């Protein structure tokens, strides 16, 4: 799986709430630390990475330097569609075009148009466009994609529009974008999941969707926020037995409460860890390359925590 960072585009997606942005940021830090000029792309109104690095968020569409060899950019699909229509419409001011009935009709009548122009902008980044006078472009574009269903819609938009627009500049861009997404040597796909049945099921659905739409496979599944396996089954039985013995000996009330709380906490961690590792086994039975990321303890995930995850991922990438 180490070759995943050698592609031009790495798409990170999965069920919402699994930590996709965190994993995308960690991969960006890992790649930059290896000397690759890397940009992490967020989609929509989200622009979380600059604040993680202690930098004021710029307006959408403007690359931000986060650290040496690492940048981020936020692409607003509505803005991207407006800019594309401005190119087609010549010198029509953006505010006029945005308020026009034609724009509103087109945006409503062309499902997938926003997704397509967003993907075109990402394709342009893989070509080095948008670096404002800097030569060489980016070695790696990490796409922090939306959740699975929306991400598959974005990734499938070039094929949908390619069947409609067969000539003209948008047709040429669509063909080149589709070639990028379908090329195993130029792009890779990574799923992020939690160790839950629902999140793992969505990763399996993502694999099926990639095969159907692009003829591609997942490079790996990153299972985030794994709890350690602190006790064996035999050890857990001994812990429970100690709690039962304390009850039999009629320990003082305060001591008994502490023992009961400790046993309950041990049982909760043991059961949750067991369920998580059952889901890891489920993925491995399907021959996925599985990367486990431990749970990061703390009130909030900071830059040091993300750097720790990057070091963890370095063993697998």
Question: How would you describe this protein?
Answer:
- The longest helix has 33 residues, at 253-285.
- The chain has a single domain (2-228, 279-313), classed as 3-Layer(aba) Sandwich (Rossmann fold).
- The chain is elongated, with a radius of gyration of 24 Å.
- By secondary structure, the protein is an alpha/beta fold.
- Strand 3 (64-67) and strand 4 (70-75) form a beta hairpin.
- The chain has helices at 20-33, 49-52, 77-89, 94-99, 101-109, 113-126, 148-162, 169-182, 197-214, 233-248, 253-285, 303-313; strands at 9-14, 38-43, 64-67, 70-75, 140-144, 187-194, 220-226, 290-294.
- The protein contains twelve helices and eight strands.
- An eight-stranded mixed sheet has the order 3-4-2-5-1-6-7-8, with helices on both faces.
């Amino acid at each position: 799986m180490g070759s995943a960072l050698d592609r031009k585009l790495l798409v990170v997606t999965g069920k919402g709430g699994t930590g996709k942005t965190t994993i995308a940021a960690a991969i960006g830090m890992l790649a930059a630390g290896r000397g690759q000029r890397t940009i992490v792309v967020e989609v929509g109104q989200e622009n979380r990475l600059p604040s993680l690095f202690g930098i004021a968020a710029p307006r959408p569409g403007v690359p931000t330097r986060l650290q040496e060899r690492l940048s981020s950019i936020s692409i607003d699909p509505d803005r991207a569609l407006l800019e594309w229509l401005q190119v087609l419409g010549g010198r029509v001011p953006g505010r006029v075009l945005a308020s026009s009935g034609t724009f509103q009709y087109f945006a409503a009548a062309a499902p997938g148009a926003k997704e397509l122009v967003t993907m075109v902008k990402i394709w342009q980044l893989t070509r080095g466009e948008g670096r404002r006078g800097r030569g060489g472009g980016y070695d790696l574009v990490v796409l922090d994609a939306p959740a699975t269903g929306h991400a598959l819609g974005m990734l499938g938009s070039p094929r949908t529009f390619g069947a409609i627009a067969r000539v003209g500049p948008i047709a040429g861009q669509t063909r080149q974008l589709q070639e990028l997404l379908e090329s195993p040597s130029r792009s890779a796909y990574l799923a992020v999941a939690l160790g839950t049945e629902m999140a793992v099921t969505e990763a399996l659905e993502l694999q099926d969707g990639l095969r159907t739409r692009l003829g591609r496979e997942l490079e790996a599944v990153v299972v985030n926020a794994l709890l350690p396996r602190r006790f064996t089954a035999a050890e857990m039985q001994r812990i429970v037995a100690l709690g039962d013995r304390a009850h039999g000996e009629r320990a003082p009330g305060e001591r008994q409460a502490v023992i009961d709380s400790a046993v309950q906490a041990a049982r909760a961690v043991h059961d949750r860890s067991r369920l998580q590792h059952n889901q890891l086994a489920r993925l491995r039975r399907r021959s996925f390359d599985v990367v486990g990321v431990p749970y990061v303890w703390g009130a909030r995930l900071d830059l040091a925590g993300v750097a720790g995850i990057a070091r963890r991922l370095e063993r697998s990438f």
